[in-house]
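Lab notebook, entry 1374. We have the chain sequence and a SMILES string for thiamine diphosphate, and the next step in the workflow is to get a structural model of the bound complex before anyone spends time on docking refinements. Request logged below.

Task: model protein plus thiamine diphosphate, output structure tokens.
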Amino acid sequence: MTIIEQPVDTAPQSSHRLTTSKAMVEGIEIEMARDPSVIYLGEDVGAYGGIFSSTAGLLDRFGPERVLDTPISETAFIGLGIGAAVEGMRPVVELMFADFMGVCLDQIYNHMAKIHYESGGNVRVPMVLTTAVGGGYSDGAQHSQCLWGTFAHLPGMKVVVPSNPYDAKGLMIAAIRDDNPVVYMFHKGVMGLPWMVKNARATADVPEGEYTVPIGEAKVVRPGSDVTVVTLSLSVHHTLDVAETLAADGIDVEVIDLRSLVPLDRETILRSVGKTGHLVVVDEDYQSFGLSGEIAATITDVDPGMLRAPVARVANPDTPIPYSHPLEYAILPRQDRIEAAIRRTVSR
Amino acid sequence: MTIIEQPVDTAPQSSHRLTTSKAMVEGIEIEMARDPSVIYLGEDVGAYGGIFSSTAGLLDRFGPERVLDTPISETAFIGLGIGAAVEGMRPVVELMFADFMGVCLDQIYNHMAKIHYESGGNVRVPMVLTTAVGGGYSDGAQHSQCLWGTFAHLPGMKVVVPSNPYDAKGLMIAAIRDDNPVVYMFHKGVMGLPWMVKNARATADVPEGEYTVPIGEAKVVRPGSDVTVVTLSLSVHHTLDVAETLAADGIDVEVIDLRSLVPLDRETILRSVGKTGHLVVVDEDYQSFGLSGEIAATITDVDPGMLRAPVARVANPDTPIPYSHPLEYAILPRQDRIEAAIRRTVSR
Amino acid sequence: MTTTTPGRPHPMQSELDGPTRVGLYRTMVLIRTFEEAIRRDYYADKGPGFDIGKGLVPGEMHLAAGQEPVAAGVCAHLTADDAVTATHRPHHFAIAHGMDLTAMAAEIFGRETGLGHGRGGHMHLFDPSTHFSCSGIIAEGYPPALGQAFAFRHQGTDRVVVAVTGEGAANQGAFHESLNLAALWKLPVVFVVEDNEWGISVPRSASTSVHSNATRGVSYGIPAERIRDNDVEAVHLAASQAVARARAGEGPTLLEVHTLRLWGHFEGDAQGYRGDLDDVPARDPIPTYRTTLSAAGLLDDATAQQISDEASARVEDAVTFAKESPLPDPADAGAYVFA
Amino acid sequence: MTTTTPGRPHPMQSELDGPTRVGLYRTMVLIRTFEEAIRRDYYADKGPGFDIGKGLVPGEMHLAAGQEPVAAGVCAHLTADDAVTATHRPHHFAIAHGMDLTAMAAEIFGRETGLGHGRGGHMHLFDPSTHFSCSGIIAEGYPPALGQAFAFRHQGTDRVVVAVTGEGAANQGAFHESLNLAALWKLPVVFVVEDNEWGISVPRSASTSVHSNATRGVSYGIPAERIRDNDVEAVHLAASQAVARARAGEGPTLLEVHTLRLWGHFEGDAQGYRGDLDDVPARDPIPTYRTTLSAAGLLDDATAQQISDEASARVEDAVTFAKESPLPDPADAGAYVFA
Ligand SMILES: Cc1ncc(C[n+]2csc(CCOP(=O)(O)OP(=O)(O)O)c2C)c(N)n1
Ligand SMILES: Cc1ncc(C[n+]2csc(CCOP(=O)(O)OP(=O)(O)O)c2C)c(N)n1
Ligand SMILES: [Mg+2]
Ligand SMILES: [Mg+2]
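Result returned:
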């Protein structure tokens, strides 16, 4: 991490109290130590330690043979990851921002994701593609997107999206050990970076040593009875904030952190909506043709009668992400919009 | 058209009886004749006339200054279209298969689609991106995809998907005249190509001269009272086939051809489902995180109570498209699956 | 190596020994025999008329007739431990690299016994036992080749990778990125550009700003060579040096071979755009090489016949196996999405 | 032109006249003054601590201090009818090409009066009146530049386009595709590579397989030149020839300028990875050029002060205008998605 560093938290704390970024790195580190076939490649992942601190310390520990700075050639180095995976390695490859998918999507969706199928199961591509997502700090239309709807739409790759330190580590270890390509999307706003707005839940106790969070299992992060909010990533935290506020008003919100988009844990969603009868989806990606529709359809696939009110979708309203702060906050699914949507939904 | 040519139809017919591909070309031709700033560029669009006959005859009529064969450099020539549009031209640029979006998506979604917004409306990008979609002829996982869900998810570009000669011409003229980027996705199976399986509705009477089909208006191509099928492109024809079969059994199917995905004509969908209470979505794209979910959400956004049965989604079940014919037909939304879904839906 | 090729010695004064030369011929004949059989069965049942989606072998079919010298000359230096990544036009490299004809044919016929259980098809042949793969997306086979090379070196072996594209594909971004990265990291890759002068209907002069892609080696600081005249022995020689460099850890080489697309871009292509069609048959490299070898006293008619018969027998066995194999069960279409 | 640059005449024997030389200096000073003001206001309100999303100017901020010679030397040959496409580090080119400082500053401050009504931000400056645009995606500004050039020629004008990237970006596929297509179609583009030796934390030696991108011109059959020493007059000279070629219909040229990243990749970058930091201040091209001009008797202290004062006045006017302008109305966030 090179951007003006500040001490994270000086209060006495358990030795395993980590930010999300450090938990993510710890997961990588454990696997690199355990399995010599794990390497990490990408732009500025060496001496810099990752623009969003996804690799801090790895170069020092594992050296330049296993932690590799690449040229700005995403097609070449993601492809390199694919070929290395095919030949038995377990590469973790970083696409610095998910927004850059457009220069290398062919390697991702036509190769990484399809080789296993095209080979009739004879070739495996056990690689992890890590990538930073999300806005909220005025980085403009090409550096703030979530785009998980796009990755999840295209078959053959798993997609995980941790929202907190525990999941960040456990999903990373699970992703590296998975025999399939796994896209690991981390929101800059959950990483606990010293140079971004502070998120209280971005630092937490994390077990030492290895453990996995199973890919494909959502988590009910707050049980509730009145309304189900299905969400992920940074929006989990905004939603939890709102749930606390609403609890004071007697509105009991159940919050589901999807954690994985592919496979999607439809059971957990159905169980919750079966109980609450009210569904709000909070999604920082573009609204149409994406995640929020898929969650609605998860219910209508089975029984639209479960829904006692319209499904509220709190997402980016199909707008490129504006630079100017008030505009950006207007299109992001933040506390104000989430709260309004929940109130509207439970009142019907 | 170079692939083994055969006479299309020798029966006496109106002089405006055209295949979809010829109707598409006629639309381009009218606009090129009318407006010297319209050019067409892409791979094999000159002497070859377009791999799927999207440009047959244009080189002869307009010459190599306006109908340009490009190198296989999609990023460069789509970008070229963008820059030319910014400077006042109206380029039509062909991406030979939508499947190739991965090598050039950045120009498409981060530039073509966003420049207008980023410029605060000061720069316009009036270009058309034409591209062939769809499978059904064993072209494998990298040459058979529809992917319209991906294009429609990313904001700033209109997306149109004609299913027949009339719409192909009218939407082409509308797209070229639109001041926004328009993605024009034509299914190989609706083009009426002599070397593909014949589709009865791929040849039809088309008005001579100019007319437009408004972008953003769906069309009820078959009115019915029992169930609404929302679909597009080749699937419209499969659905109409099934509707005829089911009519004999007293099941009255309303078929909506979306024609445009962006903007999406939600009114027409809501009006129909409001009437029938039953919804089936037929979509040749991947099922999850795409079009079919968005259509379901169009209802749940407003009133899930409109739905008297689960929404049936007949789509590609999130599988890369297999080469072998029986496998491919198993994953495509063809008549058998459409019929079963409609029967299941109306029986609930 | 230099970026342009000085005149090669006439094949009569070949540097190669007789068995090697006959071996190259045998490989070329096997490839052609396979392609002719596929072509025959491709058209066998497309009617009435021509429906690309019909028949024993549906879909697009890109055959490599005329380009056998490239595959034969290059792959002669490889073992099954080395990798090859090819293009939408992959059969010649697959065969030259030793792919099992039976599983290959079965895949092309879409059978459950095929390399990919019928999931891949002719543009998607994956064979772990020869480390062979290919892709239908132009130039996008290059990047994964880098990774195979990286793994081979990381694993402490001297295995190499051959990565193939056409001259049209060399104008795609992936070409540039791959050559730069391979050069920078000195990866054991031999990049092969098959210049058959056409990218579908577009001639090289309309796609490529320079006459030869060998010129482009200098952009990456790597040796590059253009092999003229579709000459299998010249390919063999150049490839032997390139493969040796890669094995020795000296990094990548770029080889461009000026070859010939004997048939259409894909089957069904009437090639109306092509002015040189009349000359093409005379440039067929197989009869030419046969003449050379017989003039050198290495190939009498009987041996040639025997080579041809052997090839036919192997190919027809493979095709028969394919045709007799079961089609995949539609109920299994969703298998193999995930491991 | 050759791919390597022979030693340039010492600036004392400049081929340029006095007013031109002072004009170049004036442009460089204006740029630097603007960047310093932005830097000041960038940090003005990021606290407590440093929160990148806070303050008058939030978000990433890539400043071009040290690279002024490139923009000043190239844009001296352009009029507002010519186009420039720049990168994530665009201010120096925007200013040298004559962008209105007021609307530019207002955009950077995210105001409704900005060039893009606050929608774009510092990486997305679009100015139809100077045909200026930029992009935050590496090398992806090149392809649209081809289209502007195409349109200019199609419209029968002799207008040209300057397209800029960094040396890191030159390893991206878009670079290769764009140079090939521009060369093939002889488009009036001048490609400029700013080699500041770094792509964020990665030195050129770890990203680029050759020492100079000028080497790569040969891959496209176009003239290419590397300008050493961050020398504004050498840039001016090379650009004059390149722009003249483009205007005359002779096609594109590739110019690489060896320049200097005086500050971090973006603001907040502590540059711990950078070993040359101590030497950097002494390589600042502005004081160096000032010394040259004053030695040549062209710039006394009073004139220098006047240039600096004028620049400050213009910049502070622009910044004041920006700060006093209204922020956009959140209710309008959805405007301008479609025309
Ligand atoms: C990215 C991409 N663009 C376009 C195509 C369509 N396409 C398939 S083969 C081909 C021509 C390839 O020419 P070349 O590289 O010379 O190979 P050849 O066919 O001559 O062997 C084209 C344009 C593709 N498959 N991928
Ligand atoms: C396709 C893409 N990959 C990565 C990035 C992230 N990124 C932004 S600037 C930069 C370094 C660019 O280096 P260079 O081209 O030398 O320009 P400089 O910053 O030195 O001006 C990188 C990697 C990006 N914006 N786009
Ligand atoms: Mg070719
Ligand atoms: Mg740089």
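Notes for the group: The CA atoms of residues 177 and 313 of chain B lie 34 Å apart. Worth checking against the assay data. The pocket of magnesium ion (ligand 4) is lined by residues D 166-168, 196, 198-199 (CB under 6 Å).
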